[in-house]
Every structure is written in C-alpha cells, then in structure tokens.
Specification:
Layout (H helix, E strand, L loop, with lengths): L3 E4 L4 E4 L9 E5 L3 E6 L6 E3 L23 E6 L5 E2 L12 E6 L3 E8 L2 E8 L6 E10 L5 E8 L7 H6 L1 H7 E6 L2 E6 L6 E6 L5 E5 H5 L9 H5 L12 E11 L4 E11 L5 H5 L5 H18 L3 E4 L3 H21 L14 E2 H7 L8 H12 L11 E2 L6 E2 L17 H13 L8 E3 L6 E3 H13 L29 E2 H20 L3 H21 L9 E2 L5 E2 L9 E2 L1 H8 L6 H14 E2 L2 E2 L2 E2 L25 E2 L3 H10 L3 H10 L9 H4 L7 E4 L10 E4 L4 H13 L2 E3 L3 E4 L9 E8 L2 E8 L8 E6 L2 E3 L2 E2 L6 E8 L1
The structure holds alpha-D-glucopyranose.
Alpha-D-glucopyranose binds next to α8.
Protein name: Glycosyltransferase 36
Keywords: Glycosyltransferase, Transferase
GO molecular function: carbohydrate binding; glycosyltransferase activity
Length: 784
C-alpha cells in the first residue's frame, strides 16, 4: 500500500490518506523554538529544550495514537457539524485530504461538504514561536457561516513534572486572555509565558482545558465546539488550552486567511509588538517565503545529478534535511525519544556535525564547542547534556564499576577534523574551551589529546580499550563490576582518531607529534590484531569475565558488524583480514533490508552482556538492522575499492525504494529510521524509530564523500569516486570554502575506482585547489 509520493519539484512529501501506519511527521523550527507536526497535526513543541521548556503537551502511549496536536476545527454554524482538515481528532471522514511535508513547514488540507480548509505550520525567522496560516474556502454556491476553533494544549515547562507532579503543577498553572492573546504560565513566574495569539476578532475563547473539552469528553468532541462557542474561561489551576473561536462568513467561492501564532515569550507584556509583523496573512506569507529561501540556500552547497533518481532525491533534499534535524536535536526529541531525560548525546551530536559540515560549518563549530565543554579534565566526556542549561551527565543506565562510555570523547576528534578540512580554520585548534568543571580551560587540540589519553590510560588485560558502561552500542553493557571488560570497537575507533590526529599534525608540519600519533595507532592496532582476530572476522569485545564476544564458537553473537567495518575504517585490518572480515559481514549479516547488527541474536537475558539481551531476537541492537552501522560498511567497502558492493548496501536501505510497500516499512519513506527489525524477528523488515539516527549523517557522508567521492581536504577538494562500474557519468555541484565547483565525472572504462585525469578550468592538475570565495570553477574527472 502506498500512502503518498515525493513531489520533487516542490521538495515535499505528499501524503494522500491520513491513516498512515505510524504518524508520519515533520519538524518545524531550526533548533531553538520548534517541534513536531504529524500528518494529522499531532505533535508538540518546545523552546530550546523539550524537557525543560515544553510548550505543547503530548500524550505518550495514547490510544488513539498521536494526540493531541495543533488542531483546527471547522464548524458549520447552521448544522453544527464539525471536522478537522487533518482528520484527527474528530476523525470525520473527509471528502479530500492531503498533507505536504516540506522543508521546515507542513501544510495539511482537508475538504468536507464543499468547505476547504488548509493549515500551514512553520517557525518564522528562527523566532521563539510558530505560525499557523489557516485558509478556509467556500466552494459552494451559497453563503456559509462557520466557526473556526483552535486547540493548543499547553504543557508545564518542566515536561517531567507535568507527568509526575500533578499535585503541584496543576494547582499553579495560570491561563489569561487579553486582546487576542492567551498566555499560559506557572503562578510564580512573573514575565515569561507560553502563548497563542491571533489578529482576528475573537468571538470567544478558553484558556482552561476542562472547560473547553467538557466532562467525559475528549479532543474528538469538545463541548465548546459542539455548542459553537467557548466559555471565556480563565484558568486559575488545572490544564491549559489555547482555544479561540472565530466567526467566519464566506460568500460562494470566497476564501479567507487567518493567522495564529503560538510559542514562548520571554516577556509576555510586550507580545503584541513582537508579533505584529506576523499576525496578518501578508506578513506570515512573507516569513514563509524567507523560510523557503533559507532551505534553498542551505542545500545549495551540495547538488548531485547521478544516474540514480533516488540517490539524487535523498542527497539533494531529504538526507540533507534529516541531517539538519539530527544536528538540531540529536536523539532527544521525536515520537520515540520523548524529549525527556536523555538530552543531547555527546557521541551522537559529534557524529551529527558530519552531516551539516558542508553547509553550516560555523554552526557545527558552535555545537562542537558545546561538546568539548562536556569533557572532563581527564579526557572522557559526559554521555549527554541538556541544551538549555548546558548541564550534563552519564544518563540513567545502571552503573556498576564505571559511569563513562568508552567512545563518547573519541568522536570529538572526528568532528573537529572534519570542521578543519571543511573550513581551513586551523586557528580553532588553539582556541580555548572550558572543561565541564567550568574552571579549567585548554586549547581544542589539548582537549583532543586528552580524549586519546583517556582511552590510552584505560586499557584492559588485552591492552585494548576498556569498555566502560558501553561503547557506541549503548546496550552492550559488559560491566558487572569487575572493571576489565574491553571493547574492540572503541579500540578501532581510537585507531581512527589517532590517525586523524596524525593527519592534522602532518598538515601543520608537526612531525614529532605526527610520529607520536602513529606510535599510538600502531600500539593499539597491534594489540587488536594480536588478540582479536577470530579466523574469519574480528571479535567484538571481552566481557568482565574475560570471555570474548563475536567468535565462531559462541552460540549467540558469533559475529558483530562494527568490529568488521571499523577494522577497515580504523586502519586495523590489513591484507586478507580486511577482505575476509567484510566478506563475513556479507555472508552472515546481510539481508535485503539492510545489514543486521550481529548474528545470531541472543535469545535469553544474560547479565554479563546487559541491555542487548533484553531485546527479543532481531530487534534493535540484538540482531536488528541498526541502520547507523550500515554506512560504515559502505565506507569500508569503498576503502577496499568495491563500489558495486557499497552501492548495493546503500540502495537496500533507501527508504524511498520502499514507498510502495509502506505498510511493511511502516515509518516515513522520506527519512532513514533508526532501525529495521532483523531477519530473526517475525516482523522482519518493519522500520522503527524514525528520524533521529546517526544513519542520516553517515549515509550523507558515505554517499557524497565516498561513493561520489567529493570530500574536503586540508588544502584541496578531493574527488575520489568509488561507484558502480555500470555508471558512465555523474555531476556534483559543491560549494567549498565559498567557491563553487562544478564537477563532472566520466567513467569511460566502466571501473569502480581510480582517477586517470583531473582537469580544472581546462587545465590538467594533480590536486583540485582551494579557490577564492565567490568564484566558480569547472572540474572534469576521468576515471580509469
Ligand atoms: C541510539 C543512541 C546512540 C547509540 C545507538 C546504538 O541511537 O542514541 O548513541 O550509539 O543507539 O546503541
């Protein structure tokens, strides 16, 4: 079954029936005020931090699913019938329905008995609020009188207290109305408030949710909408709603636009002034235009034309868009990660910077600095932090011996190196940044050295990295309190990080430092190769009792994906080891929906392995297709020159390719989900946890930098393709340090890899130079 299609021209995904298998969502906002809007207008919003400053409430685990949201009710004043353009919450069967998820906005349109209503939701100009432009049109031959109601259910700012401390929260909530603005704030808060506003004449309003809904009713049949008027309730406790009732009369064929603005105000007394540019439809449309321009510009730095339409669609639009969303919100806030307790992940955000580096490196640098501030003076880092407060910690998993993860700090090296290559901003390495004790500061390069030190200072009996609480695989909890469990993956990541530090040192001409990094790399590499090769592949870890995970003799977890891909990415596997371990991935782990994380999955809980064994076989890290890991295999294959295999792996997880079987994929076909149930699960092939996943950044990296081969170097732009041999040609437009490179790659000999000739602006060169910002250059690359 198909629920929608890609409108390539408009860069929208168009959903044509509301009953999608899961809510298919979009994000609005750019990382400050923002939120989630589903295809039936479900979702919530927040300012800067979904835990500490929630604006709209969402009911987790609700039945019916996906409520509440940003609702508009249209009521016929004569018959009293009412409906929503987004189907929910009345679920009245509409004569037509359509939801367009675009870049930073969503438009939901419904028609019922000759009245058409559409609502466009977006955040203007990075402000602290969102706009709803509501358009109502009378397609009948008679004059129609109707009422339009809004529904915005407010949350207490602390979204955990909102759920847990009803005793306090519901006694202090306050709703007020003044001149077209409803505000909502705790009693003891003097200035700031959540609010909803309109420039239209308000016939009645409610600030108290209970008054609007009525007893033993729900959002599906609020008493106010049924009766055709709100009760002008001023809420002095209980729950809050931003409900306006606006009378509308439309002649035949006439249409009218009404604007609502919803958000957070630092000072509620000056709201009217702040909003005046947005409250009339003209101002609101102008803001929407600016948003479209923003996204046009955002995506201009990378534009590809390959023989593969889905790759073009994803690299030019959806993959870049998803990367910006993961950059904004890490793994903090989706319909699955609820914006509660987990904060922004250090390893996650560090990897997310890779997906935006080509277009907003300055913002990436801003996030990198925040992450460096999460480092302890000994080099390890928090596991997560909260964006509003900057406070961080190690999460809520049970602690035995260690409260740190073995990998968080190492990802910082990859992020900083990518930033330097993109920008050439070497001075950043000497900028001073505080550690998380907020007293000690050090240069960026010192922070990175400390990261390496921490791992080198925490080795286990096999002289490889201690596992700590877990590594990239959050669920591999090997620590039972003995303090010796080791992670092969982290050790491989360390090798990669050491080599990236070596590259930086070499480029800066620091030969001694470079030699030292090589020593660190080799020591670890040798330790891994001495004890972690299992015959056909690399082992994955050693548990606290010294037993290896990921060996052919094990009953479960014989082979894990990450210690194969990272053996190559980390430069650990040489000669036949590299080919063998990647071939083992294909033989034991590959499926038509993607490569599973390990095999065979654990069937019973085992406290020496921890969280991974809490999942049923085939789910998540326990043998599921954890998509984030798949691009690492693609990159490893490319490093081995195997463009056909890498491309096959890329294609098999392309969500757009499953648009026609969306009932089986279940999640949105326009973004990568976090995971797909694996071959050992009865629901093999179903996607879970859409949107927030490192898959976004790494697939963008794998496809654009490794398959298409266009990547930043310290003093050049690199074009090093590794493509399917059948491709004859492709083009990439890349803006790099301000200059535009119009790249055309030709593959006359039908090879996977290898560059015979590079011609820049008509002249043969060895290296593609960095050009003056603002200039445009042609680059021809002949493979062979
Ligand atoms: C989740 C976590 C991420 C972790 C991954 C694998 O996506 O957010 O940090 O690496 O799971 O366990």
């Amino acid at each position: 079954m198909k629920y929608g299609y890609f409108d390539r021209q408009a860069r929208e995904y168009v959903i044509v029936r509301p009953d999608t298998p899961t809510p298919w969502i979009n994000y609005i906002g750019s990382g400050k005020y923002g939120g989630i809007v589903s295809n039936t207008a479900g979702g919530y919003s927040f300012h800067k931090d979904p835990q500490n400053r929630r604006v709209l409430r969402y009911r987790y685990n609700n039945i019916p699913m996906d409520r509440p949201g940003r609702y508009i009710y249209v009521r016929d004043s004569v018959t009293g019938e009412y409906w929503n353009p987004g189907f929910q919450p009345t679920m009245k069967k509409l004569d037509s329905y359509c939801c367009r998820h675009g870049m930073g906005y969503t438009t939901i349109e419904g028609e019922y008995k000759g009245i058409n209503a559409d609502v466009t939701y977006f955040v203007p100009d990075d402000r602290d609020f969102e706009i709803w432009i509501v358009k109502v049109k009378n397609n009948l031959n008679i004059t129609k009188k109707m009422q339009i109601f809004t529904y915005a259910e407010f949350c207490f700012w602390d979204a955990i207290a909102d759920q847990q401390n009803v005793d306090w929260v519901q006694q202090i909530n306050q709703g007020r109305y003044n001149d077209g603005i409803i505000t909502w704030h705790p009693h003891h808060v003097a200035k700031s408030a959540a609010f909803i506003a309109t420039g239209e004449k308000v016939s009645s309003f409610d600030t108290n949710l209970e008054s609007f809904i009525g007893k033993y009713r729900s959002e599906a049949n609020p008493i106010a909408v049924e009766q055709g008027a709100c009760s002008n309730s001023i809420s002095l406790r209980q729950n809050g709603v931003g409900a306006f009732c606006i009378d509308v009369e439309l002649q035949k064929g006439e249409e009218k636009e009404i604007v609502f603005v919803l958000g957070y105000a630092e000072d509620k007394t000056v709201l009217k002034d702040e909003l005046k540019d947005y409250l009339d439809p003209k101002g609101a449309h102008a803001a929407l235009e600016r948003l479209n321009l923003y996204w046009k510009k955002y995506t201009e730095n990378l534009f590809v034309e390959t023989p593969d339409e889905e790759m073009n669609l994803f690299l030019n639009t959806w993959n870049q868009y998803q990367c910006k969303t993961t950059f904004n919100w890490s793994r903090f806030v989706s319909l699955y990660q609820l914006g509660l307790a987990r904060g922004m992940g250090i390893r996650d955000s560090a990897q997310d910077t890779l997906g935006v580096m080509h277009t907003i490196p300055e913002e990436a640098k801003g996030l990198i600095i925040k992450l460096l501030k999460c480092q302890y003076t000994d080099g390890r880092a928090y596991h997560l932090f909260f964006p509003l407060t900057g406070e961080g910690g190690s999460g809520d998993a049970p602690v035995k011996k260690f409260d740190w993860y073995s990998d968080d700090h190492l990802w910082l090296i990859l992020a900083v190196n990518a930033y330097i290559k993109e920008t050439g901003d070497y001075a950043f390495l000497n900028e001073k940044v505080l550690y998380n004790d907020k007293k000690t500061e050090a240069t960026v390069i010192e922070h990175l050295n400390k990261a390496l030190d921490f791992t080198a200072n925490n080795l286990g009996p096999h002289k490889i990295a201690l596992a700590g609480r877990a590594d990239w695989n959050d669920t591999l909890n090997l620590d039972v309190g003995l303090g010796v469990a080791e992670s092969v993956f982290t050790s491989m990541l360390y090798c990669r990080a050491a080599m990236e530090m070596k590259e930086i040192a070499e480029f800066l001409g620091k030969k001694e430092d470079a030699a030292n990094y090589i020593k660190l790399f080799e020591t670890m590499k040798n330790a891994i190769n001495e004890t972690c090769w299992d015959g056909e592949w690399y082992k994955r870890a050693f548990d606290d009792y010294g037993n290896a995970l990921g060996t052919k003799d094990a009953a479960f977890g014989k082979i894990f994906i990450n210690s194969q891909s990272w053996a190559v990415l980390g430069g650990v596997a040489e000669g036949e080891y590299a080919r063998k371990c990647l071939d083992s991935v294909e033989t034991h782990l590959n499926t038509k929906y993607g490569i599973v994380a390990m095999y065979p999955a654990y069937t019973e809980f085992d406290e020496t392995k921890g969280g991974i064994t809490t999942y049923p076989p085939g789910a998540k890290e326990n043998g599921g297709i954890f998509l984030h890991t798949n691009p690492w295999v693609m990159i490893a294959e490319i490093m081995m020159g195997n463009g056909d295999k890498a491309y096959q792996y890329y294609k098999q997880i392309m969500p757009a390719a499953r648009n026609n079987e969306a009932d089986h994929l279940e999640v949105e076909p326009y973004v990568y989900p976090q995971n797909i149930l694996g071959k050992e699960h009865p629901q093999f092939g179903i996607g879970r946890n859409s949107w927030l996943s490192g898959t976004a950044a790494w697939n963008l990296v794998a496809a654009s930098q490794y398959i298409l081969g266009v990547r930043a170097g310290y003093d050049c732009l690199i074009v090093d393709p590794c493509i399917p041999a059948s491709w004859e040609t492709y083009k990439v437009k890349r803006v790099f340090r301000g200059a535009t490179y119009l790249i055309e790659v030709q593959n006359p000999d039908k090879v996977n890899k290898g560059v015979k000739k590079i011609v820049v602006d008509g002249k043969a060169v060895d290296k593609i130079p960095v050009f003056e910002s603002g200039s445009t250059h042609t680059v021809q690359v002949i493979m062979g």
